[in-house]
Write a structure and sequence with these properties.
about 110 residues, mainly alpha
């Protein structure tokens, strides 16, 4: 049986109809899964990006916690606590005067930040 006879036969027509239905169904299924499904490829990519950003934020916060622990250990010493209070909050002892000296370049930076 030659190719020409097979193309004209009833079985070839049935196979071509079924194969086109399978191709259309498979194409529709793939499009649905990539774009429209609740677990679509687009949503997976968005979630992956969000996980990566959260992992970066987690690492940053771990570093901040480690730095804060070091500061807390330093502040357990009364002299370090006094130094911190004087530098950060401009606290003073009784009968003591504090002079704040600002340089021109620090004033320019403050004005640029506003």
């Amino acid at each position: 049986m030659g190719w020409q006879k097979f193309k004209k036969s009833k079985w070839f027509k049935v196979l071509s109809i079924f194969s086109s239905i399978y191709v259309i169904t498979l194409t529709a299924f793939i499009v649905w899964m990539i774009f429209f499904d609740t677990n679509s490829l687009r949503i997976h990519m968005e979630l992956k990006n969000e996980i990566e950003s959260l992992e970066k934020q987690k690492e940053y916060l771990k570093e901040q916690i480690a730095n804060d622990k070091k500061i807390i250990e330093k502040l357990s010493d009364p002299e370090e606590l006094e130094k911190f209070a004087r530098e950060q909050y401009y606290l003073k002892k009784k009968n003591e005067e504090i002079y704040l000296i600002e340089y021109e370049d620090s004033l320019l930076q403050k004005n640029n930040n506003k």
